[in-house]
Design brief:
With 355 residues, the protein is an alpha+beta fold. Helix content is 38%, strand content 12%. The chain is built from 12 helices and 10 strands. The strands form 3 sheets. A 6-stranded antiparallel β-sheet has the order 1-2-3-4-6-5, with helices on both faces. A hairpin with a 6-residue loop joins β8 (225-227) and β9 (234-237). α4 (139-154) packs across α9 (282-293) and α6 (194-202) crosses α12 (340-351). The chain is globular. It starts with 5 loop residues before the first helix and ends with a helix.
Length: 355
Amino acid sequence: MSALDEAANSGLAEPSDAHRLDKDTLARWMTANVEGFRGPLNVSKFKGGQSNPTYCLQSADEVYVLRRKPPGPLVSGAHAVDREARVQRALSQAGFPVARIYGYCADTSVIGSEFYVMQLIEGRIFWDATFPDVSREQRPSYFDAMCDVIAQLHSIDPTSIGLGDYGKPGSYFARQISRWSRQYQEDPEAGRDANMDRLVKELPARIPQGEEVAIVHGDFRCDNLIFHPREPRIIAVLDWELSTLGHPLADFAYHAMMYRMPPHIVAGLAGTDLTALNIPGEADYIDRYCRATGRDAIDDWHFYVAFNFFRLAAIMHGIAGRALRGTASSVQAMERGKTFPELATLAVRALENLP
């Protein structure tokens, strides 16, 4: 069973004590800041969401989604919900499929942390990368939609939508490797791994030459996308916590990593008979992205894959640490955290394929 199994991650539940919100205080804030809001307010929590807790807010007339920073001690720079709200507001101007942002709150006295409220979008979320509920004939169209939307994101000029300062231009891989290495090394409570230590040491020396800058999502997977209820069309991209200005090939390789990802970790296709399912292969998928973004090919592909397995391993390591400290958002956090050594192994395998 996948760690992102739909039964474990979709649907609503009563918030635990650590994640409970003061409904009266929140309702007063929404009355003052969300146009058209009318109480009373009912609050429940989405089961998924490993990092930033996500809630369903039901008012007298509408249903909203709230994303907040988690309670407890936090790693510096992580859980930046203000950035999530900002990037979605900006991308909506460019016609990119995102939820409407109704309001952001920096006042931690309202619910105990920063948060924002956005539109609830009804559609289909696929937790399994094989798209089992889609007909064999339609399946390629869903993969085309994913590839085309991430290519669309990377084709948007950040400056043109007010995101020219959304991240530091240049040296993306060096900064990212440093960031995730530091978060791994500063949390010894979550464990150590020999492959992870090797990656921390070797990855900086394998960074390809050349710089590109685009808006990158950072966690572009099928389960972070809302598809139209009946059509192979993406109507919203979710979970912008890791977005920044960065290298588009890092972002695309993270998405295309699904071809090498064991499905018990996150939505992946490793070990799947792609031909039988009528799913385009990795090479064809890369070719479609290249055509959509005006590239001839992608050199150093194995580096981008190694980098992303390393990065995801560091994220899972962080989830393990939060689970040990009791501040993780999801009840599945401990099991997810245990996958970081396997992800580090996959990163090393990719690294060893480099010339």
